[in-house]
Specification:
This protein has 355 residues and is an alpha+beta fold. The relative contact order is 0.12. The protein contains 9 helices and 17 strands. The longest helix has 26 residues. The protein starts with a helix and ends in a 5-residue tail after the last strand. The structure holds adenosine-5'-diphosphate and magnesium ion.
Length: 355
């Protein structure tokens, strides 16, 4: 199916490219840049070249600026300044509207997830070595160090936001928006495209993406990465989406380290202080990429026994999970969106409906 789709889009691009009357030159235009600590790809369909160039430049610059502001450990970041104020028991005035909204929404989403999505565990994430561009630990941190941070019980619920002034009742809170800033940024970038009257597009920030409209007459087909990719098999399923929908994947293979044959992922269970172990990847489809990103991380923490209850509680409507054995867990509504290669169907478990 995917191959057919790629062929069809290539053909349509060729047809249009051969037509000298066409003001769009090529129907599909794409630009990729490395920003936000990840590869960002913007794909536009049926957009005049000048508008497309403006969109690419706008998005690249905006993402660079957001990354600087929201970074969890870069010295010039506003989040780092906010974290310093919290550690010193001082109030902090947030001048930037997007950061204030990022924080406010994070508080709501964390509560919805029973604090499995918990952006206040920055100290734990740093302890595990994930506050570096490349994870650098060669072995897990000492259990006592983990216990000590757990005993401080940092939670985003400890923050009080009045107007644009933030205070914390707990100096151990250290914010890290890594689990949902990419989703939030993708939502923001799609709003930018809409302001430029762009109706058909994809903004993809390292597997956290949102589509607008369609790819010509067809829905956009989004590949979900195979959990154990090989050269022949890099895509597990294609998800057909159109209109305004996000497809967000959290995986344990993005940032991790290995010790003694064990895989340590960058998603930490705030209850135990340990990296998650059961789930290889979670894909959530939702209108909001912000929600989908926070939910995907929460489901990763919830694990195989509890993902369904957590998805139901959070209001997730479409989910596809791959566990460590490669078994796929999905809800019935997701079956209508996802297309698997027929000759290579994975073992799958279908849950009760979510809504
Ligand atoms: P990806 O970056 O692959 O999309 P996630 O969205 O799952 O992955 O985000 C993982 C990042 O979120 C980690 O690198 C860390 O910064 C942060 N994080 C880890 N565990 C949690 C958690 N339980 N709640 C909130 N943030 C977390
Ligand atoms: Mg996430």
């Amino acid at each position: 199916m995917l191959r057919k789709f790629i062929l069809a889009s290539l053909i349509s691009v060729l047809l249009v490219a051969c037509n000298p009357q066409n003001p769009y030159q090529e129907r599909q235009q794409q630009q990729q840049f490395y920003v936000f600590g990840t590869l960002v790809a913007v794909t536009l369909w049926d957009v005049p070249k000048q508008t497309a160039d403006q969109a690419f430049t706008d998005i690249m610059h905006s993402l660079q600026a957001l990354h600087k502001k929201w970074h969890a450990w870069d010295k010039s970041s506003q989040v780092v300044a906010l974290n310093q104020a919290i550690a010193q028991g001082q109030a902090y005035t947030i001048e930037d509207e997007s950061l204030l909204d990022l924080l406010t929404q994070a508080q709501t989403l964390a509560a919805k997830s029973d604090y499995l999505f918990e952006p206040a565990i920055g100290k734990l994430i740093a302890l595990w070595g994930f506050h570096q561009d490349e994870p650098h630990l060669s072995e897990p941190p000492a259990l006592e160090a983990i216990e000590k941070l757990l005993a401080e019980k940092p939670s985003i619920a400890d923050l009080t936001i009045e107007g644009n002034v933030v205070t914390s009742s707990n100096p151990a809170v250290q914010l890290d928006f890594g689990a949902y800033a990419k989703g939030y940024a993708v939502d923001m970038m799609v709003e930018k495209l809409k302001k430029l009257d762009i109706e058909n597009a994809i903004v993809n920030a390292g597997g956290n993406l949102k589509v607008l409209g369609k790819a010509g007459e067809r829905p956009w087909m989004i590949g979900v990465r195979h959990p154990f990719p090989t050269e022949e098999k890099s895509v597990l399923a294609a998800v057909a989406v159109e209109g305004e929908l996000s497809v967000v994947t959290s995986g344990d293979y993005e940032r991790y380290f290995e010790f003694d044959g064990k895989h340590y992922s960058h998603v930490i269970d705030p209850r135990t202080g340990q990296p998650t172990t059961q789930i290889r990847s979670v894909t959530v489809v939702d209108e909001s990429a912000t929600f989908a990103d926070a939910a995907a991380t929460a489901l990763m923490v919830a694990g195989i026994e509890n993902w369904y209850a957590m998805a139901k509680k959070m209001g997730v409507r479409y989910v596809l999970i791959v566990d460590q054995a490669g078994t796929v867990h999905l809800n019935p509504a997701m079956i209508d969106l996802a297309q698997f290669q027929k000759r290579d169907l994975p073992k799958s478990v279908i849950s009760e409906p979510l809504i």
